[in-house]
Automatic annotation (TrEMBL):
GO terms for molecular function: ATP binding; DNA helicase activity; hydrolase activity; RNA helicase activity. This is Regulator of nonsense transcripts 1-like. Pfam families: AAA_11, AAA_12. Gene3D superfamilies: P-loop containing nucleotide triphosphate hydrolases. Residues 233-464 form the Helicase ATP-binding domain. PANTHER family: DNA2/NAM7 HELICASE FAMILY, RNA HELICASE NONSENSE MRNA REDUCING FACTOR. InterPro entries: DNA2/NAM7-like, DNA2/NAM7-like_C, DNA2/NAM7_AAA_11, Helicase_ATP-bd, P-loop_NTPase, SF1_C_Upf1. One of its GO terms (biological process) is nuclear-transcribed mRNA catabolic process, nonsense-mediated decay. One of its GO terms (cellular component) is cytoplasm. It catalyses: ATP + H2O = ADP + phosphate + H(+).
Length: 674
C-alpha cells in the first residue's frame, strides 16, 4: 500500500498538470479566434458602408435559374456593368438580397458581367432564389462573410482542450508543448531571427520530450512489408523523399519541410500509396485552400489509380475536373439515389434526404482516402469516422486552430499525423493585428510552433523547379546550402519561339535585377482596389518597365517549334508584386487581348505556384529607405523561387538595399537594362 500512494499522487499530479495545460491552450487560442472573426466582420462592415466603387456590392441584378449540378441548383446573376476583379471569385460566399429578405449562396464561376451561384436543392436559399427567378425579380448582392471556419475551429479547440482522454500522446504533444514555445522560443520571425538561423535549427539534435513523443514508433506493419513497398519507390523518388516516407510511416507525428520545387505534394501522394499498400488506412488528406486540396487530390488519383478516393466539399468550391470524384458526384451516379430523385420530380412521396444520407455514409465509409480542406473536414458526414493517418499539405499556411479540425472531428485522435510545409515561406494569412502577432498569435502555424518546441523536421532536399542559377541564392541564403538541384542547366533551355533579343537575354543569364531609379511609390485606397480596408502602394515607372519586359518576351507566331520543343505562350509568364495596388495597375495595363490569360497576382496569393518566367515588381521607392513588409525575408524567398527558366525583379536598388536580405540578393544578381 505504501508503494502505491506515491504512484497515485504522481498520476494525479500529471492529470492536474495536463488539465491546467488544456485550459491554458484554450485561453491562448480562443481570444485570437474571436479577434480574427471580429476583424473580418468589421472589415466587411466598413467596406459595405464606404462602397462607392461597388467593390463588394452589386445592384440591379437579373436572376435566372440555369441548371442543376448534382445536388446544387445553379443561378445566374446578370449585371449591367463589369464585375470588380478582386471580389466575387469562385468559392466565395455571396449574400443575395431582395427587399428585406436575404439568402446566402456560393459562387461557382463568373464572367465579365455575370455571376453563377449555387444553392443546395431543397434548401431555403434555393426555394427563395427560385421564386425570385420565376417572378423576374431584380436583386442585389454583397460579398458574404464566412463564419464556418471560425465555428469549426472553436468546436475543434473545445474538443481537443476539454474532451480528449489523457491517454492520447498526440494531444499531449499539441497541448503541453505550447508552454515550451511560449516561454522562450517565440521570436519575431521577420527581423530578429535570421533566415539562416531559422533554416538551420532543424540540424540541432534536440531530443527533448516533445520529439520523443512525436518520434514514438507506431508498430502497425511488419518491417519486411514496409521495405518491399518502399523499395518500389526508388525509380520515382529521390533519397530524401524515400527517407521521409519511411519516417512518416513509423512516427506518431511527423513534420516534413519541403522547400520550393522539392515535390511536397508528390511525396505526400506516394506516402498515401504506401499506407494503402500496407493496409493501414484509411487516410484523411487535407490542405488549407480548395486550390491546394484539389492539387493534392489530383496527385493522389495519379499515384493511387485503384484507390477509392472521395473529394469532400461542395461542387461550387471544387475544380470541375474533380466533380465526378466528389461526394455529390458519386451520389449522382448511385442508382438508388438517381431513381429516388426521378420519383421526387414526378411528385412521389420519397424520403430523398434520408436515402442520400445513408448512401453518402456508405460511400465515405468505404473510401480509402477522403480529401478535404482543413475546414471542410469538419463536416457532419465524417464526424464519427476514425482515420489511421491524417496528412495536411501546405500546413505552414494554415492557422493552428484550423489545423486542429481534421485532427479532432472524430471520437479519437488519429494514430499518426503528418504536417507538410515550409516554415521558410509565407505564414498563414491573418487579418487581426492581435491574431497576427508573431509572439502570441495565429501568425505561427502548428508546424512552426512544434518545430520551435523541438520536434524534428524531415527535409526534402532536392528541387526540380528552378534553373540552377535561379536556385543558387535561395539555396545558400535561406536553406543553409542544404537544398540541391535535381535539374541541370541543359534541362531548362530557352524557348525557341521568342524574338532574337529575348533569346539573347536567356543566353546572358536566368536571374536579373532591373534597377528603376526614377520610380515613385504612390499610396492608393485598397477599399476601391481590392476589397480590403486600408491603403496599398503602386509604382507607375516599375509597371512600365514590366510592360516592356512582357513585350520583349512576347512569343513569335511565325514558324513552328520542333515536336520535341515546348511552345512558349504568354500564359507561361507570371507577374507578381507584394502590393495589391501594383497588381491592379499591372492588370489594367497588361491583362488584355492575347495577354488575358497571363497570371498577375500578389506574392502571397502566388505561393505554391510556378511559371516558366516570373517578373517581380518590388514597388518600394522612397527617400527614407523604408521597405515595409518586404522586410519579411520569407516574402522575398517566395518571390524569387517561382520561376523555372527566367527571373527578373524590377525595383529601386537604393531603397531595397536598406534591407539585409534584399541587399544580399541584389548584390548576387547581374543587372538588366531595358
Amino acid at each position: 500500500m505504501k508503494k502505491g500512494r506515491p504512484q497515485g499522487r504522481g498520476r494525479s499530479a500529471k492529470r492536474q498538470a495536463f488539465h491546467s495545460a488544456m485550459e491554458a491552450y484554450n485561453k491562448h487560442f480562443r481570444p485570437l479566434l474571436d479577434a480574427e472573426v471580429a476583424a473580418e466582420q468589421e472589415q466587411m462592415r466598413q467596406l459595405r458602408s464606404e462602397d462607392s466603387g461597388n467593390m463588394v456590392k452589386l445592384h440591379g441584378l437579373a436572376i435566372r435559374r440555369e441548371k442543376r449540378i448534382f445536388a446544387e441548383v445553379v443561378y445566374s446573376l446578370q449585371s449591367r456593368k463589369a464585375l470588380p476583379q478582386s471580389r466575387f471569385g469562385k468559392g466565395d460566399l455571396v449574400d443575395i438580397h431582395y427587399e428585406t429578405e436575404s439568402v446566402q449562396a456560393l459562387i461557382l464561376s463568373r464572367q465579365s458581367r455575370k455571376l453563377f451561384v449555387t444553392a443546395s436543392i431543397g434548401s431555403e436559399a434555393a426555394d427563395r432564389l427560385d421564386s425570385y427567378a420565376a417572378l423576374a425579380k431584380c436583386v442585389h448582392a454583397e460579398a458574404g462573410i464566412n463564419t464556418l471556419s471560425y465555428e469549426r475551429a472553436v468546436k475543434a479547440l473545445d474538443f481537443v482542450s476539454k474532451g480528449t482522454p489523457l491517454s492520447s500522446d498526440t494531444v499531449r504533444l499539441l497541448i503541453m508543448s505550447i508552454a515550451a514555445t511560449q516561454d522562450h522560443l517565440y521570436l519575431d520571425l521577420q527581423t530578429k531571427l535570421s533566415a539562416t538561423e531559422l533554416a538551420s535549427r532543424h540540424l540541432s539534435d534536440n531530443k527533448n520530450m516533445w520529439e520523443q513523443i512525436a518520434g514514438e514508433t507506431v508498430g502497425r506493419f511488419r518491417d519486411e512489408d514496409a521495405n518491399l513497398v518502399i523499395r518500389q519507390l526508388k525509380p520515382r523518388l529521390n533519397r530524401s523523399q524515400i527517407r521521409t516516407i519511411r519516417k512518416a510511416l513509423q512516427r506518431r507525428f511527423t513534420l516534413v519541410q519541403g522547400p520550393p520545387g522539392t515535390g511536397k505534394t508528390f511525396m505526400a501522394s506516394h506516402l498515401i500509396s504506401c499506407i494503402l499498400q500496407l493496409n493501414i488506412g484509411p487516410v484523411l488528406a487535407c490542405a488549407g485552400t480548395n486550390v491546394a486540396t484539389d492539387n493534392l487530390m489530383r496527385n493522389i488519383l495519379k499515384t493511387c489509380p485503384k484507390a477509392k478516393v472521395v473529394r469532400l466539399g461542395r461542387v461550387s468550391a471544387v475544380q470541375e475536373d474533380l466533380w465526378n470524384m466528389s461526394l455529390d458526384g458519386l451520389l449522382e451516379r448511385n442508382k438508388q439515389v438517381r431513381k429516388a430523385r426521378r420519383d421526387v420530380e414526378q411528385g412521389l412521396n420519397v424520403n430523398l434526404r434520408a436515402l442520400e444520407k445513408v448512401v453518402a455514409h456508405d460511400i465515405l465509409r468505404s473510401a480509402d482516402v477522403i480529401v478535404a480542406t482543413c475546414v471542410g473536414s469538419g463536416r457532419d458526414e465524417i464526424k464519427d469516422f476514425k482515420f489511421s493517418f491524417v496528412i495536411i499539405d501546405e500546413a505552414t499556411q494554415v492557422t493552428e486552430p484550423d489545423t486542429l479540425i481534421p485532427f479532432s472531428f472524430s471520437n479519437d485522435i488519429a494514430s499518426q499525423c503528418v504536417l507538410i510545409g515550409d516554415h521558410c515561406q509565407l505564414p498563414p494569412t491573418v487579418l487581426s493585428t492581435t491574431s497576427l502577432s508573431n509572439t502570441e498569435g495565429l501568425g505561427i502555424s502548428m508546424f512552426l510552433r512544434l518545430w520551435l518546441a523541438g520536434v524534428g523536421v524531415q527535409l526534402l532536399d532536392t528541387q526540380y523547379r528552378m534553373h540552377p542559377s535561379i536556385a543558387s541564392f535561395p539555396c545558400a541564403h535561406f536553406y543553409s546550402g542544404l537544398l540541391r538541384d535535381g535539374v541541370r542547366s541543359e534541362d531548362r533551355v530557352a524557348p525557341k519561339n521568342l524574338s532574337d533579343e529575348a533569346i539573347r537575354l536567356f543566353s546572358k543569364g536566368r536571374s536579373f535585377f532591373c534597377n528603376v531609379e526614377n520610380g515613385v511609390e504612390e499610396s492608393v485606397s485598397t477599399s476601391r482596389e481590392s476589397g480590403k480596408v486600408g491603403t496599398s502602394l503602386l509604382n507607375h515607372s516599375e509597371a512600365q518597365a514590366v510592360v516592356k519586359l512582357v513585350a520583349l518576351l512576347e512569343p513569335r507566331t511565325e514558324g513552328k517549334a520542333l515536336v520535341s520543343e515546348k511552345t512558349f505562350r504568354t500564359s507561361d509568364i507570371g507577374i507578381i508584386s507584394p502590393y495589391e495596388g501594383q497588381v491592379r495597375l499591372l492588370h489594367d495595363m497588361i491583362a488584355q487581348g492575347e495577354n488575358s490569360d497571363m497570371k498577375i497576382s500578389t506574392v502571397d496569393s502566388f505561393q505554391g505556384q510556378e511559371r516558366d518566367v516570373i517578373l517581380v515588381s518590388a514597388v518600394r521607392s522612397n527617400m527614407t529607405g523604408q521597405v515595409g513588409f518586404l522586410k519579411d525575408w520569407r516574402r522575398l524567398n517566395v518571390s524569387i523561387t517561382r520561376a523555372r527558366l527566367l527571373l527578373v525583379v524590377v525595383g529601386n536598388e537604393e531603397t531595397l538595399m536598406n534591407d539585409v536580405h534584399w541587399k544580399a540578393w541584389i548584390r548576387a544578381q547581374p543587372r538588366l537594362v531595358i
